[in-house]
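Q: Here's a chain of 245 amino acids. Please give me its 3D structure as tokens.
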Amino acid sequence: MKHIEQDLPKADPSTHRFGKHRLCVTGERAHKLSPLELRGGTRGFIPVWEKDVVLRYRFNDRSLRESKRTKKEILNLFNKAVEQWGDAAPVKFIEDEVVWDFEFDVRKDRFCFEDGCVLASAFFPDGGRHHFVIYPSMFDQSEPEQVETLVHELGHVFGLRHWFAKYEDAELGGDWRSEVFGHNDPVTIMNYDDLTTDIDECTLTKNDKHDLKHFYNLVWNRDLVSINKTPIRLFKPFSAGAPMP
């Protein structure tokens, strides 16, 4: 595939690396942090979901036809990823072709840089409509790895980032402040960018689920309203304010 790899652009410094040749572009790359990796970001607040949120999704049928993938295939992988988060997941999901919060978009073309190819991209909590994009490179992996990729992207949907605190990154110009919550353990589903950690060890852990569940319970009970003076902002999905047919 040398003809494909020639003249590929360099990945933006904000791109996260899934091992040597797999990339994640959902989150902004910064500094090493905890499994939750919560940071206020440039908007000055930490976005999370309100209690009892249901995210409604639909499929881009044209993308399924062009990518030669099926709804059944994608839902099988997605449901397995949701099941791995279990009762730690702060939201529920339901299919709705009319009133929806995000759309599955399965691309037929790869999205590659010199450093590797993007597998998938998702979104963070807010009141807008979004795309959950899956690229063909994800299907180059084994099924357990495909599910793991979606588990990671769901972490972003739940509000988790993969910051790297107290880590000098020359490309980004030094030490950025991050807001930390949870166990400081490099073995986590959200820490794929730690090149000192074996990629096989970056998996969903009990600490990941415990910290996420504990964090949301504190927020929903109003026992936690900020982290290091960075305010926490709760969001309802787009569908919550949309008229139902």
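Q: Can you summarize the key feature?
A: Residues 1-16, 28-42, 163-178, 194-199 have pLDDT under 50 and may be disordered.
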